[in-house]
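Journal club side-thread
Mid-discussion, someone asked how the predicted structure for our own chain would compare to the paper's figures. Pasting it here so we can look after the session.
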Amino acid sequence: MSSWKKIVKNKENLTSMNNKEKEELLYLKAQQSVNQLRWFYVHFVGYLVVVGLVIWNLIIIEDTAYTDAILAINYSTIFIWGFFLVLHAIRVFKKRTFFNKEWEEKKIKEFMGNKHNTWE
């Protein structure tokens, strides 16, 4: 369990914290989120490399007695790893929606800051 989860587990600790302690807690949460995101990207790049190698293998494979077994291994690798990659993505991005309220507000302020220009 990460250190910030241990602190938040006890609700009394959260209410008795001063601003500096709350800021440190937010920093620890942000640090953990960045670490999770980094490992997801490493996982995704590894998946892309393996998919590229599997595609290359499918291109160069010749018809032999073991062709069906090789194809089964290749396809199962892609699908099983892809399934776990999706699970990893859900875990990492579960609280990050692409078009949430914060994004809308940011875009509204961005358009309002451009001298109220319209699309017309």
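Post-session note: The chain has a mean pLDDT of 82.
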